[in-house]
Amino acid sequence: MTALLAVARYEFRMQARKRSLWISAVLLGGALVVLQGERGPHHLPLDTPAREVVGTWALLFSILMPLAYGMLLADRLVRDRKLRVEPLLESLPHAPATRLAGKFLGGVAACGLPGLAALLIAVATELPKRHDPALIGWALVAFAVVTLPGIAMVAGFALVCPTLVSVPLFRVLFVGYWFWGNMLAPGLLPSLTGTLLTPIGDYAATWLLGNGATALFAGTPGILPFLRPDPTAATAAASVAVIVLFGLIPLAVAAFLAHRNARQTWPAKA
Amino acid sequence: MAIVAIAIQVTGAGHRRAELILVAGLEGVVPLAVAMAALTIVVRENCRELHLSLPTPHLVTIGRRLGVLGAITVAACVVYAAVAVVAGFRVGPGGGVLVWIAPTLWLAGFAALVAAISRSTVLASSAVALVWLGELFWAQTFVDNAGLRPLFLFFTTRLGDSPGWAGNRVGLLAGGLVFLVATAAVLLRPERLLTEEDA
């Protein structure tokens, strides 16, 4: 546990201090704030419930900001190999899974910082207009159910996939996936948009809106109908769980492979 | 995209839809892939100091690498378009060359410029992702606004070769060339690229 916390803390501090994380997050989040249009949260009537206001902001930020997190985390494991420190790290007493889990937790925490900051800044701009302190509480809820699960899923894949394909190829596939799996209407092409597996937080945002309308495409008919239940509080919770668990799958596979490699190579090294 | 198009054609979902997917592959996926590769070429170099000590200017080295990327892209796209045409699909006017070359030049030039200025793959790839997804997300705005139309990467996929297509392609080609010239100007001082690690 100590090793896990140490790796997570080091990873967190390293990522959180990267200027590119903050500049990219401001670039992507700022573009959405500027270009949100009349359907954006800035144009909601003053009597709109706090949870709906915050839900709309959370959805707005989760449309593009996770791209910055994926780009940032894409070279975390590859970098160890590139700098030739991987064998050194493998020789340490803790299991490879601990290092992976620590990098994952630290990366998620670091990427969560700009996500939380964006929501709190949005709430700070809304408070003088709406005079509703519940906005702050709902911002934390929105961060937990919309922002954080998406970051966890992105982090899981961004850490592991570039070790199988190259980093540039992962970035191309990631951007393409983000459009196909989150924003492409299921009627146009078979896609994962509107399913429980949508890391943009469609189901959770729909629950937060609480006005009977879907945030984007949650529950819209399409392929894999069993992943498209009607949006409710229960399905929103299920979506959060499924998104996080799905993000852990590549980590589990990578940890298993690393453990097996260590067992196979250790006697030969000895 | 070709596999998706074949699947759509085989499942009987429509020749027109399969054709649209093929065009989207050329006009959408190729520029994104080439842009990500281009920014990596500009930023990632483990032996930059060694290159700076050689008689060949570093700008020429990067230019040659980008040239190889361009040659591979041309070869792959020509084969892709030729196979599509032989299979009975229409991939745009004139064999579809301008369908992919114009947005590819623009986005790759933009990626190279941001990479040269920022020296960060994270920042450059985020900027490319923002432009690519933003143009898809706000496509109607780009179509409706005459000032933005020359910057619209997905004109053929969205509107076919309707009026304004040629102007859009010329605008993208010109913008791409401007970006590449600006990138070259930045790379004329290659010592700016020196950094210990991607920030």
Main sheet properties of chain B = none
The Rg value of chain B, from CA coordinates, equals 18 Å
Q: What is the element string of chain A, with H for helices and E for strands? A: HHHHHHHHHH
Mean pLDDT of chain A comes to 91
Overall mean confidence score, pLDDT of chain B:
88
Largest sheet properties of chain A:
none
Helix fraction of chain A? over 70%
String of helices and strands of chain B: HHHHHHHHH
Round the Cα radius of gyration of chain A to an integer and report it.
Answer: 20 Å
- Strand percentage of chain B lies at under 5%
Cα distance spanning the termini of chain A = 27 Å
Q: Span from first to last CA of chain B? A: 34 Å
The low-confidence parts of chain A are none
Structure description:
Chain A has 270 residues and is mainly α. Chain A has helices at 2-16, 19-34, 50-73, 76-82, 86-90, 96-130, 134-164, 167-182, 202-209, 233-269. Chain A has one domain. Helices cover 72% and strands 0% of the residues of chain A. Chain A is globular, with a radius of gyration of 20 Å. With 199 residues, chain B is mainly alpha-helical. Helices cover 73% and strands 0% of the residues of chain B. In chain B, helix 2 (15-43) runs parallel beside helix 5. Chain B is globular and about 60 Å long. The chains are: A mainly alpha (270), B mainly alpha (199). The interface between A and B is medium-sized, with 28 and 27 residues.
Task: Write a brief caption for the model.
Chain B: This is ABC-2 type transport system permease protein. The complex is a heterodimer of chains A (270) and B (199). Chain A has helices at 2-16, 19-34, 50-73, 76-82, 86-90, 96-130, 134-164, 167-182, 202-209, 233-269.
